[in-house]
Every structure is written in structure tokens, then in C-alpha cells.
Amino acid sequence: MFTKEDIAQIEQRGTTVQTVEQQVERFKQGFPWMKIVGPATPEKGIQVLDEAAVEAAVKYYEGAKINGKCKFVPASGAASRMFKDLFSGLDALKAGKEVADDAPAAKFVDKIGEFAFYTPELFGEQTCKCPEYRQSVLAKTLTDEGLGYGAKPKGVLKFHKYTDGEIRTAFAEHLVEAQDYMRNEDGTANLVVTISPEHQHLFEEAYAEVKEAYEAKYGVKYNISFTFQDKATDTVAVDVENKPFRTETDSLLFRPAGHGALIYNLNKIEDEVVSIKNIDNVANERLLPETATWKKVLLGKALELRDTLHGYLRELDIVTGATLAQGFASPVIPAHTGLGDEDVYQRPEVQALCDDIEAYLADVLCVTLPKAETCKARVEAIRAKLDRPVRVAGMVKNQGEPGGGPFVIAEKDGSTSLQVLESVQINMSDEHARNALASATHFNPVDIVCCLHDYKGQSFDLLKYVDEDAGFISSKSYQGRELKALELPGLWNGAMSNWNTLFVEVPLATFNPVKVVLDLLRPAHQN
């Protein structure tokens, strides 16, 4: 399948021929559909907290022992999709065509003075609806004639302007958030921001502009790490016949494998507790008290779940007499008892604990286990379910926003679990799946808290908990030629499939993404 030149290209990227062959085979075989039991709802699968429960979760977080905290912010890629409508308007004007007054590009120009990046020196103080003015404003926003925002990442764009004249980027707002709810006991705030290498200097400049001022204002010391999506995680593209796609130079075409590749970046974090939030999901600081409260709620629920699961694991160790330095081990049975291996697992106290754990898993995490053939197999299956990374994901009521949704699904091993599914993972030709999607009440705003250490204090190897069957194939193009692209299991989808998951309803006010530039006119981004 591959020439000597191909093999050299593959190895130069840090991957292997075998891996690329597996990717090509995946295009041919496709991905299996997720088997949906039903949507996760407040009736089953999503916790809706009253005021007392909110206060209890915040209190639990504030009193918990944590071996380091970190905020993880996916921020790679340019903001080109954010300005897609503006590019269309600019192209039309350059071609001598008119842009309708109700078109996004026209609305943007009309409201230019309300954006944080507006200055009269650049854009002028007079506004009009004439094509020449509209073209000028769009060009000065998108191109090197002015701000060049069309080629810059969202994180360094000016999102908010305050009454005292301060102007903040999206990245700056994440710094302000981190010092509030992710501050460590020693006064530090750790952030890991995933960016593209070509944008590193822009983020470093944006950080340098605010670092000293924010550390003085908030009494915090920031530890910032900029990381890149590893080129070795890129996937090969294929043509419509599932053959490796060739560029005009006859070389293989590799593409970024989506946000699922960031599980490798997340896996390198040594802190125990990690908060994940997309770069564009920030708001004016006046909304920070509510945002921080609900983030602390998610943190508290995650730590409570961590402590419960770890407690059960320790109890299993005690009642089985197990020594588990690595993986599973047979119980250490005193020779004088005369008990056999299975006899220990059959003891009433062991089975009673298993009953309690299975009831908890079913009631709280929607995890049901298939009936085990032996008592020992039952204990080991329970232990395998308990001893996993933890994630608590905030869910907002469905308001028609794009994004994945929470579902209860049937796993390959016969168990059930809570998962976040994208629409492309749902078989729309299956009536039950369609009905489950139609009756879903919430969607995923990517507001996630993770606990990444096991009950012995060691970091999980997160790569062991990825469901490789949970990726998807998308249609793309290269220089006008159609191709297929392979996306790895998404970071909060298949990459976290085998985690212990809890969904909690959070207010819509905590979700303020900027998917298109006109979103910056929403109240959450204005004074």
C-alpha cells in the first residue's frame, strides 16, 4: 500500500505504518453505532440540585483534599469559522454584489461600535450602509489591512470591554476564572492551554500583557503551560474509494484528528483535579459569581464521587483480604482457614458489599452490570468499574444549540453507562435511536470536571480508557477534491467512554459560547 517515500513520511511524523494501515481499514469497516438505551434526563441520568444540595456540593469542594488542580482549555485552531459569514459578505462586496441589510455581515458592520475590538482610529466614527464602508470594516476586521482576526485564534481576540476601559481577550477571561474557583492552597492557579504552534507567540504576548496586573489584582501566581496537539495523532485521509489520499506531490495527506487527540495532552497532566472548558465559553466578569458557584458545584460532586468510589475499593480490599499492588490479585488467605479462592468471595460480607456497590452504581451512575458466572468474577467486574477516572459534566437544558447530548447506552460487555454522544454517532435510520434523540432534554456545553488519580494516589493512564470504536468519519475536501477524514474518539465522547460519569444540570447562564462573531453582542458579553 505504501512506497518507501510514504514510509519515511509516516515515520517522520512519529507514527507507524501499522497505525496508518489500521486507520485505512477503519475507513473500510466504519464505526459501529452506539446502542442507545435512552436519553439521560432529570428522571434518570441527570441530577438536578436544589439550593441545599448546591450549598452542600460547594462546601464539599472547599473542604476536600486535592493533590493539585488545573484548568484545561482547548484553544487550538484559527477563528475562521467564527467569521465565516463575514468572509462571505466581504467576498460578495469585492465581487460587486450587494449584501442584504439583514445579512450577518451587514449586522456586524451596523453594530461595529459595540465590539470590544472597535476603535474609531481604525474603523472611523461614522457608520453607513454603503457597500464601500461595509467592505472597509469587514476587511479591517478580517485581513492584515487591520486586525487580521480571520487568521488568529479565538483565544487572543478581544471579547469584552469594561466600563473602566479594560479590554479582555477570551484567554484573559480564563485567567480571571481560574484564580477564582481553581486556585491551589499555595495561591497558584495552573492552566494548560492547547494551541497550534504557529499561534504560540500570540498567546504569549496576550499573557504578558495581563500577567503582572492580574497577579497583583487577584493575589495569585499563574503557572501557564501551552501545549500542542501531537502530529503523531493526525490521521491519514482517504479518497472516496478508501484508498490513501494523494496530494498534488503524490504524498500522503494527514489531517488533525479532532479534539479527541487532546486525550494525549490531558494524560500528561500530573494534577489530580482538572476542569475542562472551551476557550470561547467565557462571559463578562459580572457573571463570574454564578459561573464560579456552579463550577464549584461540579468540583464538589466530582470529589464526592471520587471519595465514594475510592471508599468502596478500599472496603473491597478489606473484605477480600486482597493485596493489589498491580491490577487484580487473588486474596491473601491464611493457610489455617482452609478456605479456597472462591470461598472467600462467597462470604456474606463480600456479597453484601457487592450488593451495595451495584445499587449505588445503578442509582447514581446508571451503570448496570451483567450477571457474573462466579462470585470472584462479580467482585473483579465491580472493581474494574470502580477503578476508573471520574468525570462530572454539567448539562444545560436544550435550547437548540449545537453540541453533543447525554444518553444512557449499552456497552459491548453488556453493562450500561452514561455517555455524551454527538449526532454523527446516532443511527438516524433506527427508530428507537431517533426517538431517544427527539426526547432528549439536555445537551453538553463542555463544562467538565475530572479526577485523574486512582485510590492509591497514582495517575491513571487515560489512554487505557478510550473506546476506539467511538470515533467517526467525516467528509472534507482538499483543493476541490472530495476526501474522507477520520476523527479520533472525541475528548468528552469516546476518549472518556470508560470513565465513571455523572451528569449534573447547570444553569444556561453559565454557558456563553462565541461560535459566531455576532454572539459577542449577547448580554453575557456586554456591560
Question: Which secondary structure elements does this structure contain, and how are they paired or packed?
Answer:
Layout: H1 4-12, H2 17-29, E1 35-39, E2 46-47, H3 51-63, E3 69-74, H4 84-94, H5 104-110, H6 120-123, H7 131-142, E4 158-161, E5 167-169, H8 170-181, E6 188-195, H9 200-218, E7 221-228, E8 235-236, E9 254-255, H10 263-266, E10 273-277, H11 288-320, H12 341-346, H13 348-365, H14 375-386, E11 390-397, E12 405-410, E13 416-421, H15 431-438, E14 442-443, E15 447-451, E16 472-478, E17 481-487, E18 500-505
Parallel strand pairs: 2-18, 3-6, 3-10, 6-7, 11-18
Antiparallel strand pairs: 1-12, 4-5, 8-9, 10-15, 11-14, 11-15, 12-13, 16-17
Helix pairs in contact: 3-11, 4-5, 4-7, 8-9, 11-13, 13-14
Output the number of helix runs.
15
Strand content: 15-25%
Instruction: Catalogue the unreliable spans.
Output: 323-339
The helix/strand class is alpha/beta
Rounded radius of gyration (Å): 26 Å
The helical percent reads 25-40%
Could you give the distance between the termini?
A: 59 Å
Q: Total number of β-strand segments?
A: 18
Mean pLDDT across residues = 93
| Largest beta-sheet details | 9 strands, mixed
Outline, from the CA principal axes?
Answer: globular
Features:
single chain, 527 residues, alpha/beta, nine-stranded mixed beta sheet, three-stranded antiparallel beta sheet, 18 strands
Any overview of this molecule?
By secondary structure, the chain is α/β, with parallel strands linked by helices. Among the domains are: 71 residues, no CATH class; 77 residues, no CATH class. Helices cover 34% and strands 17% of the residues. The protein is built from 15 helices and 18 strands. Strands 2, 3, 6, 7, 10, 11, 14, 15 and 18 form a nine-stranded mixed sheet that branches. It has a three-stranded antiparallel sheet with strand order 1-12-13, covered by helices on one side. A two-stranded antiparallel ribbon has the order 4-5. Helix 4 packs across helix 5, helix 4 packs across helix 7 and helix 8 crosses helix 9. The radius of gyration is 26 Å and the shape is globular. 39% of the residues are buried. About 3% of the residues have low confidence.
